[in-house]
Amino acid sequence: MDAKTGFFYLFSVVLLYAAFRVISARNPVHAVLHLMLAFSQASGLWLLLKAEFLAIALVLVYLGAVMVLFLFVVMMLDVDVEGMRQGFWKHFPLAATIGALVALEMAAVLMGGFRGMEEPKAVAAVLDAAGQPVVVSNAKALGELMYTKYLYPVEIAAVILLVAMIAAIALTLRTRKDTKTINPSQQVHVRAADRLTVVKMAATRQAPVPEPAANAEEKKA
After folding, report:
1. What is the pLDDT of residues 187-210, one digit of tens each?
2. Alpha carbon distance 8, 47 (integer Å)
3. What distance in Å separates the CA atoms of residue 17 and residue 15, rounded to the nearest whole number?
4. Distance CA 199, CA 197 (A)
């Protein structure tokens, strides 16, 4: 067994364990954390298949944005775990039937749908000195296509997303009177005399020395 096969079995075992814990964990936060672990192992499998772009997209989009958002939402919500588990055994037969059907369909596709297929290779439209095509990774080939042939569509999509983000911020921005806001222009033009006031105080005096206890008793007598 070579190293690639060993990594495949390692990623697969951890992925199956994480997927099982997603549906069996009682704590929603633990379920989301195991889902993040499952996505990371799936990205490792994509790397073994030489699909670098899909692996990077899975890490950046799902682990870096979606799963973090899910984690914050689950932690902020007051989820009643006991209430959610009520009626579990009532719907278990239907859920088990659907799960077994999906598992059989996936097994049929995986066992009979990919036999005799060769490993895909990404070939860039670049020739070396001998006139042979240069074999590069699919991420590099995709990057060359995006920033050469499809440069303008990519820039237009980026501008549209930027406008949508600014519009969402502008629509949700509300001026509240109970919040303490600071005007940046006032901070720039502030002067030291406006912030600092020097107050004249009298010179400090030495504290009186306490009298001995015997002298104090004599004065009282």
Report:
1. 788 777 777 788 887 777 777 777
2. 10
3. 5
4. 6
